[in-house]
Amino acid sequence: xxxxxxxxxxxxxxxxxxxxxxxxxxxxxxxxxxxxxxxxxxxxxxxxxxxxxxxxxxxxxxxxxxxxxxxxxxxxxxxxxxxxxxxxxxxxxxxxxxxxxxxxxxxxxxxxxxxxxxxxxxxxxxxxxxxxxxxxxxxxxxxxxxxxxxxxxxx
Length: 155
What we know:
By secondary structure, the chain is α+β, with helices and mostly antiparallel strands. The protein has four helices and six strands. The chain has a single domain (8-154), classed as Beta-Lactamase, CATH 3.30.450. It has helices spanning 8-21, 25-39, 78-86, 138-151, and strands at 45-51, 57-64, 72-74, 90-92, 110-118, 121-130. A six-stranded antiparallel sheet has the order 3-2-1-6-5-4, sandwiched between helices.
């Protein structure tokens, strides 16, 4: 397991390999969730939320980690819903300081959510929870933003 991300390029090469070698979007998203969870020690829950047909809700997609009750989240609700509205990444180093946080587990101390945009339209997001406070660095941001750009072709 890796505690930091000193070499982002190998991670991105692995993501490219996953995208190029699996057929369905859900298979790709599941494998990426597994890859990130297995290779970064502060990624305890890794998953995707996808915009539903109504365009006002997020539906839980492939993920790795503890089960969650949050299988459908309205735009604006919680950190995930806020990202859906703002279309901007959120990095929450201490979830206890957030008024609009939807708790998935008492173990979660921090969360990051990155939008996936296709042709300027919000289509999905990558959500990662950590059991540590303040674990996310600029390297996490660089890696996760790059992954989300690569995933846009799937939507």
